[in-house]
């Protein structure tokens, strides 16, 4: 099983190039997916899209346009002739920093919006899909009439202006269960995982999370809530972008 080395890094912005080797390949639907000896690429999951980037391998450069985690961490290098792939030889791997930085800003904004929705309206985040242009969060609320777009946007933008540090730590789940800033249901996480990677926005939110984040809320910039729509009884979909 491949280790997810991005989990060791915080902040998740401006990822550095790294040296690795190609261990194995798989062909799926005509595309070649490679497993690396070590990788800091973020695979799609948890509502955050995968990193993009490139591998310099022998005389060729391969673009990576998807990364997925299964039994192995696999990087999609497209429709490549397998003769071009050099195994067990050092290659230089680069992650698209502009894409990663934008996704990290969007993702950290999601933590602030989920926290503010809980605080203002007792709204419970039940799903999200982070994007480059827009991100959506599904919020469960018993009484949807409590929702107010302006107050949500205002509180989040105040938190951004307050320049609040965003930190990473490893925490035992038993230390999190009674903390009111922990808004996720820890029972939904695998029972056998005792130590959790936790992202804290000081005084605002504490969340077990495997995504990538900025180091201070000021890096998010301003957010704008574009749309709020019904997704059925007791559920709203909030769509926002970075200004
Ligand atoms: Zn997160």
Overview features:
alpha+beta; Elongation Factor Tu (Ef-tu), domain 3; Threonyl-tRNA Synthetase, Chain A, domain 2; 2 domains; 4-stranded antiparallel sheet; 16% helix; binds zinc ion
CATH class of the largest domain: Alpha Beta
Number of helices: 2
pLDDT averaged residue by residue: 94
**CATH H-level superfamily of the largest domain:** Threonyl-trna Synthetase, Chain A, domain 2
Shape: elongated
Distance between the termini: 40 Å
Order of helices and strands: EEEEEEEEHEEHEEEEE
Strand content: 25-35%
> In the CATH scheme, what's the topology name of the largest domain?
Threonyl-tRNA Synthetase, Chain A, domain 2
Unreliable residue stretches: none
CATH architecture descriptor name of the largest domain: 2-Layer Sandwich
Please give the domain count: 2
Q: How many DSSP-defined strands?
A: 15
Described by strand count, sense and barrel closure, the largest sheet is: 4 strands, antiparallel
Q: What's the helical proportion of residues? A: 10-25%
What is bound: which ligands?
zinc ion
Give me the secondary-structure category. alpha+beta
What strand line-up does the widest sheet have?
Answer: 1-8-4-5
Report Rg: 19 Å
């Amino acid at each position: 099983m491949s280790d997810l080395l991005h989990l060791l890094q915080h902040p998740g912005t401006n990822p550095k190039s790294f040296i690795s080797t190609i261990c194995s390949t798989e062909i799926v639907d005509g595309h070649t997916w490679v497993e690396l000896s070590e990788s800091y690429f973020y695979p799609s999951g948890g509502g955050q899209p995968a990193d993009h980037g490139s591998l310099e391998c022998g005389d060729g450069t391969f673009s990576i346009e998807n990364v997925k985690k299964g039994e192995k961490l696999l990087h999609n290098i497209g429709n490549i002739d397998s003769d071009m792939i050099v195994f067990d030889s050092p290659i230089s791997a680069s992650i698209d920093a502009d894409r990663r930085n934008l996704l990290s800003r969007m993702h950290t904004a999601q933590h602030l919006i989920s926290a503010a929705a809980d605080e203002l309206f007792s709204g419970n985040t039940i799903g999200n899909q982070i994007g480059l242009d827009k991100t959506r969060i599904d919020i469960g609320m018993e009484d949807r009439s409590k929702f107010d777009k302006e107050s949500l946007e205002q509180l989040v933008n105040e938190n951004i202006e307050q320049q609040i540090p965003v930190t990473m730590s490893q925490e035992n789940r038993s230390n999190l269960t009674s903390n009111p800033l922990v808004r996720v249901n820890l029972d939904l996480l695998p029972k056998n995982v005792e130590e959790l990677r936790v992202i804290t926005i000081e005084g605002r939110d504490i969340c077990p999370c495997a995504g990538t984040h900025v180091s201070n809320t000021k890096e998010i910039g301003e957010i704008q809530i574009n749309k709020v729509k019904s997704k059925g009884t007791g559920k709203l979909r909030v769509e926002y972008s970075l200004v």
